[in-house]
Amino acid sequence: MTPLRSTLLTLLAASSLLSLPGAAAGGAVPPRRPGRSALPTPGERRLDWLAFDAAAARASKEGKHVIVDVYTTWCGWCKVMERQTYGDSEVADYLTRNFVLAKVNGESSAKMHWKGQEMTEREFTRMVGVNGFPTTFFFKPDLDVVGGVPGFISPQAFMIYARYVGTRWYEKGNIQDFMKQQESKADSAQ
After folding, report:
1. What CATH number does the domain containing 103 carry?
2. Residue 15: inside a domain, yes or no?
């Protein structure tokens, strides 16, 4: 089985993207690395995250999709995803070119606006159905929800989701069809 096929099959099993999220990485404990610095490691990228309202304004102006990282300050897997997935140079480059990025603290009482309503970040988290952290949401430029993925997402899997949304493939078909098309492209390139 090719590595791409294996990844695609794994993603098919996690194809909850583009439906509201289910359970997050159930109770798993992220690896601890004593003495880790807050500074990026060599090759790691830092992304420019905005508050939700600022991201919404930029997305509307630039016609870009929005990725919303719903996190908490105590969430170990949120920190792992920040470093491993969002810190990955391929992911960071693609997101910087194709998306507007927002962070929402699932426990915050900070105010934000979505779909004409003022709410706290905590209320937003409940409205979109988050039941674990991290959860990643993909929004259209008009802030309609494309879908969400609960739990930690590896860089390789994240790129599939990001390309599915970033290329607007969701307008043509579901994620399974997109993954079959990607696999077909990869097989014909070999």
Report:
1. 3.40.30.10
2. no
User: Does 169 reside within a domain?
Assistant: yes
CA–CA gap between residue 158 and residue 165 (Å, rounded): 11
Neighbours of 53 (CB within 10 A): 15
Contacts of 141 (CB under 8 A, 6+ apart): 59, 60, 62, 63, 64, 65, 66
Domain count for the chain, please give it.
1
User: Over the stretch 139-173, which tens digit does the pLDDT of each residue have?
Assistant: 999 999 999 999 999 999 999 999 999 999 999 99
Has residue 7 been placed in a domain? no
Q: Per the domain annotation, does 33 fall within a domain?
A: no
DSSP label at 31?
Answer: P
What's this model's pTM, rounded to 2 decimal places? 0.78
Q: What 8-state DSSP symbol labels residue 3?
A: H
Nearest of 126, 174, 185, 187 to residue 17 by alpha carbon: 174
Domain extent for 118: 44-183
How many Å apart are CA 168 and CA 88, to the nearest integer? 23
Average pLDDT, rounded, for the chain:
83
Asked if the model's pLDDT at residue 186 lies above 70, the reply is: yes
| Angstrom distance (rounded) from CA 90 to CA 87 | 9
Label residue 184 by pLDDT band (50, 70, 90).
confident
